[in-house]
Amino acid sequence: MGIGQISPISRIFPIRKNEHDDEGVLLAIHPAMPPALPVTYLLWYTLPSRAGAASSLLRTPEGTSSCWGSSRMQSNLRLVLLVSALFGIATGIYEFILPIYLKAQGVSFTTMGAIFALAGLAMVLARIYMGGLADRWGRKPLYGWALAVCGGVTMLTALPQAMGLGWQLLLKTLRETAALTRETIHPIVLYEERHGGFLNRIGKFRGVEFLLQAGGTLLAGLLIKHMASPVAAYRDLLLIAGMLMLFGAAWWLVQFRERRQPGAQRIVSLREMLDFNIHPNLRLVAISGILFTFGVQLSHSFYLPLFFGERFHASPPVVALIMVLHRITIALPLLIVGNLWLRNLRAWYIAGIIIEGVTMAASAVAPGLLLSASIFMLHDLIGAGIWSPIQATIIQQFSRDETRGLEVGKVLAWSSIGAILGPLAAGPLAEYSTMLPFFASGIVMILSALPLYRLNLSAPAPSTPTEASVA
């Protein structure tokens, strides 16, 4: 069976075939599966007792084997899903609570921007280095370490003794270093388990994680509303989030079975970590990512949970509801993106980013809480929920197998440069006008789409390192 005979997506975006890839077949939900219940079915069919049913029902339209593959692969993917669920709940709590907690302790917007900006610098350095270490040591120890550090730091953030600026700078930097290490390795693990169906798989796994982030934010909002002391509630919720991550780390380190052989890679030099010796398509994604991350961090770093309260005087429970809907609106398209008839991935990628920018800028100037929040919800529903799994697929497709962790880390690290500048700029903008961080965010997002017009997705994917990468 030829690649071009399998699906419209694989005609546009050929998937390289190897011994672990059944001709690059893309996973598709069984036609009989009710489309309104993708999350229920995804969770149901990943339970161990349903492994047999999953193998028979989760097939491609041509009747080829399920993306879950062997029992080892099924076990690893179920574990990734479980850990993603725990991480999602904990992240939903942490990202909602932290800015509100800092504000309640008298921390200014400018100081919050400095805290988040230093964490952004750690993202740039850690993503490259940790990606290279994952090639050398394997995915399991680095992923488990990242979860454990996230959990421990989140719990330490709740301590009253850690409220000093120096402590918060250190804790936020450690937390983001670990979280971004996990984010770098996570799609690599999913891709290496089975190349075929990656666009669909990454969408569904991320969709479930975002839905559970919504659950974590909802839990946080409900508890805050019913507790006498909001500050005590913030600390208790941070402790809960940390414990969930530590539990996930322990489960991962015990249960995950490494696919690639760690230790087979050479030590990566500092020069190689910092060079731009990657596929031209990956360079374009990275350049676009610098601009986009700068834009998104203007609105989504510390200021996102504060915008609606500062501009429209919304209460914390109302803001929590908005954040819950925000997570749901990105989860829903992620769950179905792999089953959409996407004939031109580059066009969908560009359109999604532009739509996200337009809706972010419009939500900043919209009069009234209801209208502003409604427009805001569209930026993920018809923006990031579509383009982000396409971006992840492009990055994996054009990374070399031998240095996949390093190259994925490079692309994401260069993109993360914007995470340093975004929070630094957001603080003064918010002090000047409550609408400016959101409006500027949208404009920069639109500009970030320009480099993507030069993408060539029909270019051959690399199969071996270049001479420069093995010198």
Provide an overview of this structure.
The chain is mainly alpha-helical. The protein has a single domain (71-466), classed as Up-down Bundle (Growth Hormone, Chain: A). The chain has helices at 8-12, 38-46, 51-57, 71-104, 109-137, 139-157, 165-193, 198-226, 230-255, 270-274, 280-300, 304-312, 316-336, 345-365, 369-397, 404-415, 418-432, 436-448, 467-470. Helix 5 (109-137) runs parallel beside helix 7, helix 6 (139-157) packs antiparallel against helix 7 and helix 11 (280-300) packs antiparallel against helix 18. Mean pLDDT is 80; it is low at 1-68 and 464-471.
Supply the key terms.
471 residues, mainly alpha, Growth Hormone, Chain: A, 72% helix, 0% strand
Within CATH, the superfamily carries the name MFS general substrate transporter like domains
Sketch the major β-sheet: none
Distance between the termini: 38 Å
Structural class: mainly alpha
Report Rg: 21 Å
Helix content: over 70%
CATH C-level:
Mainly Alpha
The number of domains = 1
Order of helices and strands: HHHHHHHHHHHHHHHHHHH
The fraction of residues in strands falls at under 5%
Shape descriptor: globular
Overall pLDDT confidence = 80
Reported by name, the CATH topology is: Growth Hormone, Chain: A
